[in-house]
Protein 1
Amino acid sequence: MKKTILLGAALLSIGFASGQGKWQQLFNGKDLKGWKQLGGKATYTVKNNEIIGTTVDKTPNSFLATEKNYGDFILELEYKLDQDLNSGIQFRSQSWPEYQNGRVFGYQMEIDPSDRRWSGGIYEEGRRGWLYPLDLNPVAQRAYKKADWNKYRIECRGSEIRTFINGVPAGHVVDTSLPTGFIALQVHSIGKAEDAGKTIRWRNVRIMEKPAASQYAPYDSIYVVNNIANNISAQEKLNGYRLLWDGSTNRGWRGAYKDKFPEKGWEIKDGTLNVLSSGGAESTNGGDIVTDEQFGAFDPEFDFKLTDGANSGVKYFVTESEKNTGSAIGLEFQILDNDKHPDAKLGAAGNRTLGSLYDLIPAYKFTNSHKKIGEWNHGRVVVYPDNRVEHWLNGHKVVSYTRGDNIYKALVARSKYAKWLDTFGVAKEGHILLQDHGDNVSYKSIKIKSLK
């Protein structure tokens, strides 16, 4: 085993030595040749082989951008915050006159010294917002060094984007939105005049274009955000994920309490699985659909898109043993238009709103955690072998509970499921269900990982 490891290390060294990619300095240490300023009026100066950015009052986000665009590359640099200041490193970014008067948009590796600790996460400036909030990778939240130099590394190759902070894997996104663009150093806007004059320093800024595969970091097991529809990336496969819906057929799914897929009420089109509108009634048209397989400890995820006033849900631990009318019984990740569907105001304390454990536990609402109606959201349910359960919405953990404990039993006792108090949601395993509530809701990228 030791010989294999040493051989792998030797081959990696040979890959670097044989000219497969070459480091180039992006900053010459003397001036800002090759860079241009975009956006706001923060100041950028050069001193002691460092670029120093300084905040200015009453100006938007400022960016010192490379004049050249980069597609596939490895970027490394060091930065230091002299005072707490939000910032970031833009990459594959753009500025078009026709887009919000030239506003900079594109991927950003976050610099966040706040208690949130999202330094190293991946954000999309000027458009979609958070792509990889660092709650998805708690280990990396401990990597940032306050009031010290931090080393950032960004790897881009095709659709794969990976970030590292001080050698720790931070974010991993698969996305095709921006294949190329400039790199930029951000000085964030400030909200208070007394924050003017805060500084951020960068040094040792270098890039390697079109690096060989051997020059990429080795496999790690961090969570992957994959924005390509109905796709499993190489690392997701290694992490144990597989598609639960193949993106084109009804294979692996059937109607709840039925032996085949519904003949009406559902449509498979252009890589999406769609509940068709039928006036908002619960399971009266095509009815719910469930997986053929049953699952115990598992990590399923799914993308969903709501229409105005729509209601649906993803249920789990569905046993079909209740033989009830309407929707089959199970724990439910609520999918709902909170603003326009009346169910949002029913239940207790908001426990029927988007992302909630339906009728039991309300979802915590984070700023910008909800997408607009008509945009795709990302849902995730994690059921651990010890019965801990989490609901995630667009990268934020919004519900956490333990199946079968005393708190759980008390919640069930006061819910619409009280008649099944001893059995509701506590089966060893069950089906996963997509609910037909008579409203048009779309699903895609349904995948799962079994946990041990």
Protein 2
Amino acid sequence: MKRTILVVDDEQNMQAVIRMVLEGAGHQVLVADSGEAALADVHNPNLDVVLSDLKMPGMGGEEFVINCRKERPDVPVIIITAHGTIRSAVKSIHDGAADYLTKPFEPEQLEIAVHNAIKLRDILRENEQLKAAVSESLGAQRMIGESHAAKLMLEEIRRVAPYKTSVLITGESGSGKELVARTIHDLSPRRNRPWVAINCSAIPRDLMESEIFGYVKGAFTGAAQKRLGRLEQAQGGTFFFDEIGDLDMSLQSKLLRVLQEREFSPVGSDQVRPVDVRFLTATNRDLKELVREGKFREDLLYRLDVYSIVVPPLRQRREDIPLLAKTFLQELAAEMDKQVSEFAPAALEVLQRYRWPGNIRELRNTVERSLLSCRGRAIEVDDLPMTIMARTGAGNSGERFSPKKTGDKNLDHWLEEVERGAIREALSQCHGVQARAAKHLGISERSLWHRIKKLNIQINRVVN
């Protein structure tokens, strides 16, 4: 089979001899007279093997091997050396070269070395294809669900994953937007490159710029040494901005420049650095409404929203709830070393009745809490959190309480316990914020305040 070989040598005669031998063997030969010039050719997708002289002006063979391996680890490099530089050639083997030839060499030696390198290239290519297939399979498995909505979403992910296109992922809080972004990365050609994520609402505004772009020594008080930013850490891979709607306007303009020019400067530096990153973003806010309010740049929105994926809330894919719950149960039971392997049918039926305002995140938390309460080998209705019981009516239908459990307590006392437990559960999930807890329970904030006072419930607000 005809293969593409790149020959890097500053001596025209050596180039001509190698070209004649390799073209005579049926290969296509590319030539470069320096390491710097050759680096432009290593990105050729059809390139199979590189032959490089060790001693060249400018970038020598040792440095070229290191750079070539960094850019194309799938392409074997053969070093050509003289007797006096064999030690350097051996060092190049440690740096990633596949083999070396010592001048002068016979045509047969050259052909054998190239033939062996081609076999190595084929093995590396097969490994990459196998890893890609496994990665695609694992990536698809992340998106658990058999519902029509889940299948449509996975189809969209597979459609956009192979390209560098920027993707905007929208959906309610806890619906799995980061999971969608990670699956896009895992199914893309960048799967073996860095994945870097940042939450725009979790980092203070005055720290966000240096977090994204990094900074040089002395850029500001306390900058004792330079720091690599997240953007540079993601070089060659994928950068995921979660909650992009919370990004400060001043940083929006700087991000826009990165998207337009594909370059950036660390804080405190005039040096411009190129960046090769795919951008994925997510938000649970209406960015178009933020644009109308003057809180989000319209030109940035156009750059980010080249392709959009809407993640459906869990209540719109109820048929996926049993599968998701069982998957979380397997993971959490293994982590907690608990011998619980299933849900009772009645418990699954209650989970499917619930509306899941917190979506998949809330479902996972519910499974974890139920697992902590479980004393048998299956999670029963009694093990589910109070909020689930109260809002599905399971407690009032006798699925949670029975005369044996209530003893001498009358109905009012029984209902009071259910109400107290539901409110405590909601406050816990909402970190003590009453407005959010009221919305979670489907009642007004004033009504919640009266119930808290009536039931003498203590509020412990968690400050993040």
